[in-house]
Amino acid sequence: MTSLYSKELEIAQLAVQRASILTKRVFHEKTKGTVSKDDASPVTIGDFGAQALIISALKHNFPHDEVVAEEEAAELRSNSALRDQIWELVRTTQLDDVAAEGLLGGAIKDAESMLDIIDKGNSKGGRVGRIWTIDPIDGTKGFLRGGQYAVCLALLEDGEVKVGTIGCPNLPVDDSAPLTADIGANATDEEGRGVLFSAVIGQGATSRPLKTGALAEGKSISMKPITEMSNASFCESVEAGHSNQSESARIAQKLGITKPSVRMDSQAKYGSIARGAGDIYLRLPTSKTYQEKIWDHAAGDLIVREAGGQVTDTKGNRLDFGVGRTLATNSGVIAAPKAVHSQVLSVVQEVLGVK
Ligand SMILES: Nc1ncnc2c1ncn2[C@@H]1O[C@H](COP(=O)(O)O)[C@@H](O)[C@H]1OP(=O)(O)O
Ligand SMILES: [Mg+2]
Ligand SMILES: [Mg+2]
Ligand SMILES: [Mg+2]
């Protein structure tokens, strides 16, 4: 393995795999330690634990890189019961392959170190240097209802996404399985679920089964060419507060799309269109003030583009990951195969009245 970013890719995939094991354990626990954040969104012991495990692996391998991660440990420093619950999970979650676990640096020393590690995700981001961005559980609401969620990790270099990995424990492994709406009944440990999407800039995108030890072999994935808009399928958020679902319905109708949207939580949407299970992902702003977070889009943006797609905001600009922790200069997301992206964008702009 001598290709560019091969070490980063291997560590990212293994780190996401290990964190995914932790999230699945939490799903089966009776109490998920759910607390409400300042913005009223939920966070669980799974979010904190997964973030600790991923940052620990990154700091072991790339000690000088910065990290922009979603969660912070402040609440855990004053809530020792919650801290202990997370520590118990983190302490006892390993990959079941000794060599792979060794690559991630093994266990974290103690509960205090775990809190410090969680807080290493506090970089301001920006356009200079190597910055990893982590969403330890993307779609926490989906996670809680047994629907889709994703463990997301990307490497930015000078503001550009170079490596992206998304673990989706509840998506089918089969790349050609049709997209199904996220009704919250997808959580199962049966064979056939759990997929890891990855991409490296200039090297294409892959999917592989999400394992509990060494990495499974990957397959190249690509977006499906749309021959008839009437047969296209588009996906969007489950949450009406995250994306305007009445505008998306009007856009779909104007494009000639006849199928209803497939609603699913998290960056599972990016992975699903990248492998051709769906075609288009629309995320239409619901407020003028909400700024999308870089950890909600970085990995998906690269995976879709490396699979033959184009990703822009509603103004037609590429997502700019170099402005800080948020996509402050962008509004919404339009992801589609390259060949039809401009057609989709012009209908989006017509319906939204964007110049
Ligand atoms: N008002 C909002 N508009 C758009 N996205 C939001 C909004 N509030 C939260 N989000 C984020 O959208 C992501 C979920 O994406 P999706 O809606 O596509 O499933 C979550 O990361 C969620 O943040 P959080 O992690 O804090 O819940
Ligand atoms: Mg969250
Ligand atoms: Mg998220
Ligand atoms: Mg999250």
Order of helices and strands: HEEHEHHHHEHEEEEEEHEHEHEEH
Mean pLDDT across residues: 95
Number of extended strands: 14
Beta-strand residue percentage: 15-25%
Biggest sheet details: 7 strands, mixed
Coarse shape:
globular
EC number: 3.1.3.7
Family: Belongs to the inositol monophosphatase superfamily.
Cofactor: Mg(2+)
Function: Converts adenosine 3'-phosphate 5'-phosphosulfate (PAPS) to adenosine 5'-phosphosulfate (APS) and 3'(2')-phosphoadenosine 5'-phosphate (PAP) to AMP.
Helix/strand layout:
Blueprint: H1 6-27, E1 35-36, E2 42-43, H2 45-61, E3 66-69, H3 74-77, H4 80-91, H5 98-103, H6 111-118, E4 130-138, H7 140-144, E5 150-157, E6 160-172, E7 193-200, E8 205-209, E9 219-221, E10 234-236, H8 245-255, E11 262-263, H9 268-274, E12 280-283, H10 298-306, E13 309-312, E14 333-337, H11 338-352
Parallel strand pairs: 3-4, 10-11, 10-12
Antiparallel strand pairs: 1-2, 4-5, 5-6, 6-7, 7-8, 8-9, 12-14, 13-14
Helix pairs in contact: 1-2, 2-4, 2-6, 8-11, 9-10
Bound molecules: adenosine-2'-5'-diphosphate (A2P) and magnesium ion (3 copies).
One magnesium ion binds at residues 47, 70, 135, 137-138, 140.
What does this structure look like?
The chain has 355 residues and is an alpha+beta fold. 33% of the residues lie in helices and 20% in strands. The protein has eleven helices and 14 strands. The strands form three sheets. It has a seven-stranded mixed β-sheet with strand order 3-4-5-6-7-8-9, with helices on both faces. Strands 11-10-12-14-13 form a five-stranded mixed β-sheet, with helices on both faces. Strands 1-2 form a two-stranded antiparallel ribbon. A hairpin with a 4-residue loop joins strand 7 and strand 8. The radius of gyration is 19 Å and the shape is globular. It starts with 5 loop residues before the first helix and ends with a helix. Bound molecules: adenosine-2'-5'-diphosphate and magnesium ion (3 copies).
